[in-house]
Amino acid sequence: MINQNSQTILNVKNLHANTDGTEILKGINLTVKSGEIHAIMGLNGSGKSTFAKVLAGHPDYTVTQGNVLFEQQDLLAMNSEERAQAGIFLAFQYPIEIPGVANNQFLRLAYNTVQSKRGNEELDPLEFDDFVREKMKLLEMNPDFLDRSVNEGFSGGEKKRNEILQMALLEPKLGILDETDSGLDIDALKIVAKGVNHLSNKDNAMIMITHYQRLLDHIVPDYVHVMESGRIIKTGGKELALELEKHGYDWLHSQQQNNAGVSA
């Protein structure tokens, strides 16, 4: 539900970005306010994941035009670490494995780094162990995962739950979920969705990138945006995702052509 007293968390204007000289984003405009959940949909190659990575500060992408304000700060002037500390969180479509790095050590370092930036007290290993185990209950995760290397040998669903666990610990202002539903069976999807819904509140915001309506059955968006060729070409409510699920993207093109004909 949209908060009438919401504050603007993210303001993207005319964002252009490329990689290896190829322009991917060609003028993105998007405003996200506190308490809102935005879904971004579109076919493969439309620029959805690129948009997520550009917001997070991925070094493979170069912004060539436009500006992005995050809580009135120039997001593009920050490196990826500064963005994370400021409250940007990206849950990856394909979480990587980090052999030799224990999950509990990784999570505690991330948590304490953010807490230090916010001026809060850090947790020692014993304090953090109690804290993280409580968070793991939300995602129905076995505490044994704390002693394993980060994502090593995890199933697809376990990796995605570990991503949402990170988000639960870091409490970002803006959570960006890049196809978090990809590769999940229905039970894992419900658990991940329950975690995201639990973490969503009036003071933060979420951007969900997805191909499928099924995620939006469990995490109901306030806005649905359709991307194509590096631009947002259509914005609507949750009903837009249902129409896309029913009719496909060709329906959207036909509708736009009909509207253009009426305007002419």
From TrEMBL:
PROSITE patterns associated with the record: ABC_TRANSPORTER_1, ABC_TRANSPORTER_2
Gene Ontology molecular functions: ATP binding; ATP hydrolysis activity
Residues annotated as domain ABC transporter: 10-254
Key words of the record: ATP-binding, Cell membrane, Membrane, Nucleotide-binding
Gene3D superfamilies: P-loop containing nucleotide triphosphate hydrolases
Organism, scientific name: Nitrosomonas aestuarii
Keyword ATP-binding attributed: yes
Protein name (database record): Iron-regulated ABC transporter ATPase subunit SufC
PANTHER family (alphabetical): ABC TRANSPORTER I FAMILY MEMBER 6, CHLOROPLASTIC
Family: Belongs to the ABC transporter superfamily. Ycf16 family.
